[in-house]
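User: quick one
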Amino acid sequence: MEEQKTDSRLEKELDNIYKTQKEVTVIGQIASLVDWDQKVSMPPEGIGDCSEKLALLGGLAHEKFTSKELKESIGYLSLPENFEKLSDKDKIVVKRLSKDVEKTTKLPLEFVEESSRATAQAHNAWEKAKKESNFSIFMPHLEEVVRLNQEQAKLIALPGHPYNSLLDGYEEGMTVDNLDKTFSFLGTELTRLLKTIQSTNVYKNQNEDLLKKRFSLKGQEKINKLVKELMLLSDDRTRMDVSTHPFTTTIGNKDVRITVRYIGNPLDSLGSVIHEGGHALYDLLLPEEFENTVVRNAPSLGMHESQSRFWENMIGKSESFWKHLYPVYKQTFKNQLKDTNLEDWLRLVNIVKPSFIRIEADELTYCMHVILRYEIEKCIIEGSIPVKDVPKVWGDKMQKMLGITPRNDAEGCLQDTHWSGGSIGYFPTYALGSIYAAQLYNQLLKEIPTIPQQIEQGLFHETVCWLEEKVHRHGRTLTAEETIKKACGEGLNPEAYIKYMEEKYSKIYKF
Amino acid sequence: MEEQKTDSRLEKELDNIYKTQKEVTVIGQIASLVDWDQKVSMPPEGIGDCSEKLALLGGLAHEKFTSKELKESIGYLSLPENFEKLSDKDKIVVKRLSKDVEKTTKLPLEFVEESSRATAQAHNAWEKAKKESNFSIFMPHLEEVVRLNQEQAKLIALPGHPYNSLLDGYEEGMTVDNLDKTFSFLGTELTRLLKTIQSTNVYKNQNEDLLKKRFSLKGQEKINKLVKELMLLSDDRTRMDVSTHPFTTTIGNKDVRITVRYIGNPLDSLGSVIHEGGHALYDLLLPEEFENTVVRNAPSLGMHESQSRFWENMIGKSESFWKHLYPVYKQTFKNQLKDTNLEDWLRLVNIVKPSFIRIEADELTYCMHVILRYEIEKCIIEGSIPVKDVPKVWGDKMQKMLGITPRNDAEGCLQDTHWSGGSIGYFPTYALGSIYAAQLYNQLLKEIPTIPQQIEQGLFHETVCWLEEKVHRHGRTLTAEETIKKACGEGLNPEAYIKYMEEKYSKIYKF
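Assistant: Done. Structure below.
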């Protein structure tokens, strides 16, 4: 009798946590739609009402996620005598949910609202500052953002460096200690590789002028659609639109959308399709059995980024990919490519050239931008660099790492929107994603050596399935570290990344 | 002191009703976006999650709109001693809100949810039935919809005919007594006019073959964009997309979107732009001071429809409109129109020809479709016609009114989606809108006789301003009857409509 009573209570509390997660998931998807609409379709004057919509949805989700009822259900289900009765599925859901709720609860609603207001203002100031290339317009807002992040770090209060508490929001379990080690190795090795490349004859004679020709929008769109199809992103579950900054968003379990930008360079728009396509595949192939729970998610942003990087770099810049696509490319852009061959084109796709803007950086120097940003973020959070010195430090570091100095703030510390959105601790995930991607690629080639031949024939199916099997289908049942270990037999390993780089560029730059 | 206490309570309750109305408005706008997205952009497999979104938003809005707190605030503010202290603005808001909440409360959440489930099924069955042109597939669902509407009528419980309680949901204050009188006059007069027209030589020699030529999509789009601009629908606050059934939706106070369909006939797509454009102008020009309250709305669907009809028929089919547009048309569709002139074209635009499908009907016979549907709806709600007899009754009535008999259910009683969506009592508003539109047009010409010359020059500004002044800006501060009385000096008057028709068609059909 007693037993039965407990079981029915167990049922009730389980129902409650699943019901609430579903509500919060649906609210989140609605917010994604509002955000997508703002960036893709909204008439400009709709912006005011759009903010109202997002504020209302944000408040609702926070309310439901921090409700007394939910906490009581989690509390009950987490008691050892109840927890042991749960199925494996319920156990992992309770475990992840419990941590998420605990973390959300650490940030009082007032603090969240204060941050929202501050970042709304910071975003406007940043846009103006960037346009006028004037850091001083953004400076007081960045100071406020830093202050709020410092406060947030105190509220989250993880052990060690205060930056750990911020990092954990994007890359669960990652720490400054770990990053310092990883990035110090990565930075040294990338610098060495860059110097080697820069000393080659190929580098000295390289020339990008071809990409400055006019590649028609229509031609680019045709190619991009084709590549989206190759990646098995069917129109039944996805769509592709145009926006200022490319992004991927999940509007429903079977409705994931990507956007692309067209700025002239056809490799830019193609790169965004493949990159965002990698993100989209992840969200589409997350485990169905965990639909509408916190587990139907990637374990970290770094792991999510590993998929976009994998497709963008390991596949989209590979010889086999271009063996397949180049004929279509050449046919579509006859005039532009009339004096070029596959080998030249591949060198252009993989050109290494230090530049100011992270999102336009080549595969090799990309991570150096990330390391630079990480070092600065860590210091402004711990207070060892005042915000006002950021442009100066930025310039010095860039000179040291890449041998170039930004001519102004717009192409220096104002280039990215993350800080203006209140995000500090996000950047490292870009580099972690690149490392994971290289590890996965090495492993894939080891397990299925015919992948390059498949890609060359335009057959992407086995690659997608392998990634689903090794990464996507785990959702958050595993952590990022567990996922990569299970897939590749070892945890995060920057050496594998450097090895991949070395092999790749030694061929292209002939060293 | 006592006075002060009352005043601060008054403030508090006012704050609460405005806060809640804003939340409900924003939730409604979010639901409109979800619905728009479903019809315009959503990948097909998103449909399941889309229903979840709408269900969640519907539940939230119902919850907030029927909350104890809101009712208490309204109750307090409605007490005579408090009400008299309110500003005129607050008074009308409290009055309308009070009635809306009372009405919503009459329908228990379980009933609303039961109806939702029933209509979701009915809609699927209707789609299948229409596709197979087989009423028996839809019949049991229609019976259920009728039963639910009968129950709803009992719950709303307005005096007189049970249909009154349904009607009131679309056309506040309208009754069966009033409609019977209006529609009986209208039906007789329209039948007479139709017979007169059918006896003319122009009618006997008319021919629509020209519209069966191929009019390019690109050409139609160009014209439609131009007309949207003429109507002062700026891209800053509106957009125009393609959907299966044209519609207008309000996503924000400054974000109103229309859709258009392309089925070949260029007058069909143009008609939908102008029709939906009329709806869009209404929503854009509603009184700003009532933003985020129940008063920033049209007083009835009939009044809303008056605006779409006004633009579609009175303007969009007028000689002056085509004097302006025909040259562009002729230039865009050179080959198609090479043997036609403005006079012939205008006759084609205004052709009268009994047909089966309401939404494709000409201006004259359109209201006869509505009357037919009204008569059947009234009888199935009072129970004097069983649902199974609907196809037979439909055929008989259509033969009697229009002299034609549908060959099957698809072009008969299955043609429209309203019943499958649970709506009974909606149709009459289409005819009421046509009557209001004619009254407003007569009045406009009386007050500003130069309007036709302005339209001919492509100047729509004064017409838009007049409609804003006479209709839109009142929102729901006035009822539909009050609005038309204030604008035209008299209430709903079908005679004015017949007079407008008589004048128009006697010119075209030379009688």
